[in-house]
Amino acid sequence: TVQHSSNVKTLPERFTSSGFILAAIGSAVGLGNMWKFPYITGKYGGAAFFLLFIGCLLFVGLPILLAEMAIGRGGRGNAVTSFQSLSKSKYWGAFGFLSVVGAFAILSFYAVVAGWTIHYAIESLTGGLYASSDFKSTFLTFAGGYLPVLWQAVTMVITGWVVAKGISGGIEKFNKVLIPGLAIILIILMVRALTLDNAAAGVEFFLKPDFSKLTAESALIALGHAFFSLSLGMGTMLTYGAYVERQQSLGKASLAIGGGDLLYALVAGLIIFPTAFSFGIEPSQGAGLVFMALPAAFAAMPLGQFFGFLFFILLAIAALTSAVSLLEVPVAYAMTKWNWNRKKAAFYTSVICFLIGVPSALSMGPLADFAPGGKTYFDWFDFVASNILLPIGGLLVTLFTGYAWKRAGEEAGLSGFWYNAWMFLLRYVAPLLVIAIFFYTVGIIKF
Ligand code: PFF
């Protein structure tokens, strides 16, 4: 062990308690909720999968979420120094550095997709999106050109600007307006979707329980998604945790964040499937669903330009509030490591993240042929960050809290039965499951 140097810089800013919950929900609710969750639920067993997902949240997601926030608040530092000051050893921090890299990597391509959604929101409002009814080629022409770089830059400017304004003046304010705004937009779109002809068929596809589809594979998919959806393993919840007041209950916060994440995902499904089924669209996931398939539905419905605008703004907001949490990870790192002020840190990290992401923005066009191992630059960043760095980050948090940090229970506010249950999950259940997800996503386990 190395002596803990008392000159480690801590992070002095603080969230209000509701501000923290909203910011953390803002991080959790993102593109994952909107375009991945509904699809995997429909595909892997509907309500049965939904129950499985709730189980994954409760038994693996929330314990790790609680641990991450506790590490941040206990250490009051970044994703590296918090581990160091709590364990008085520098080795844990070295792994924490992978989370900083991971957050950077995710943000670099996440901002590209966020940029697409802003472009689509504007195009829907002006009607330009509906000029042709071949939405697939509309998207491929747009994403295959240079314009995505501009929208990626816009995203990074907004993200950097919010983070530069600080915890209470930037991140908290941003989420306090946008997360309730997101709820209103979701409700409007849900009412619209559920009143379309044939909406019931969509709801049925989404939620009809099919327990025969619950396999080991669907379990791993549910687990992996619970992880990504709660923004775990990338140091985001840890870094936000560093700004939480001592008296706030982290246990209650975990429940609120998990519940919020679940609710937004559920409503997203109640928008996407009724809309798709009503217009005879084959449900899929990801970019194909939202940029190529759903515009056909907006084109066909009354006031579709407006509803399309709301839908893409919804995606943009969900993505931006997640992007802000990702940028805060390297910003907190730079502020503590090099003593930079927040503005300087936000400026340089945004610029670097933008530059790293430019090839991702061009991956569907000018750089499409640069694809070593069959993956484009964009795909590689996604693959390495989501499937390798994220599980390593999650494993680090569980092992650190389960085995190395003796006072974790105190910081998390748990004792007796709840502490023992938490420790059992962190020591034995979560690490094994995280390793299993890892083996599955990198292809070592196959079904
Ligand atoms: N939770 C976000 C989503 O569901 O889209 C994505 C994300 C944000 C993952 C922040 C990881 C992270 F650190």
TrEMBL record:
It is found in: Membrane. Keywords: Membrane, Symport, Transmembrane, Transmembrane helix, Transport. The keyword Hydrolase does not apply. Pfam families: SNF (PF00209). CDD domains: SLC6sbd_Tyt1-Like. It is a multi-pass membrane protein. The keyword Transport applies. The chain crosses the membrane at residues 16-35, 47-71, 91-118, 139-163, 183-207, 219-242, 262-279, 309-333, 345-364, 384-405, 417-445. Belongs to the sodium:neurotransmitter symporter (SNF) (TC 2.A.22) family. This is Transporter. It comes from Effusibacillus consociatus. The lineage of its organism: Bacteria, Bacillati, Bacillota, Bacilli, Bacillales.
